[in-house]
# Entry
Amino acid sequence: MWGQIFINDLVIIIMKLSVCYYTAMEEEKKFVKLATVYGPAEGEIIKGRLQSEGIEAILKAESLRNLYGIHVDGLGKVEIWVPEKDLEKAQILLTQPPSEDREG
# Structure
């Protein structure tokens, strides 16, 4: 009897810890919109610049842009999303000119 109670308590504790862990992971990876551009090339350039500074970036594009290459009246818009924790750093980075002194 005591062994069963101990196992049940242990299972409950593990489940609670798992919920706390996954909740913390979800909060850490909450993405927010940084900018909207109107073309895939500009979106990819900005994404690359963010990633080169260690900021994860995701591009979200209208499906018509991907299917037909349409870039008119917002149909070709590309949204750039970054983790909420990196938003301020990303905003500052986009206001600065690209660095010219990179080795390569």
User: Anything to note?
Assistant: Residues 20-25 have pLDDT under 50 and may be disordered. Strands lie at 31-37, 58-61, 78-83. The first helix runs from residue 2 to 28.
